[in-house]
Amino acid sequence: MVRIQFLKGHGTENDFVLLPDPGATLDLTAARVRVLCDRRAGLGADGVLRVVPAKAVEDRPSDVPEDQWFMDYRNGDGSIAEMCGNGVRVFARYLVDAGLVGEREFAIGTRAGVRTVTVGDQVTVGMGRARVTGSSLATVGGASVAGVAVHVGNPHLVCVLEDADKLASLDLTTPPAYDPDVFPDGVNVEFVVVEAPDRLRMRVHERGVGETRSCGTGTVAAVTGVLYGRGEHSGAATVDIPGGQVRVTVEPEASTLSGPAVFVARGELDQAWWEGIGE
Ligand SMILES: N[C@@H](CCC[C@H](N)C(=O)O)C(=O)O
Question: Which positions does the site annotation Could be important to modulate the pK values of the two catalytic cysteine residues cover (predicted)?
Answer without folding.
Answer: 156, 206
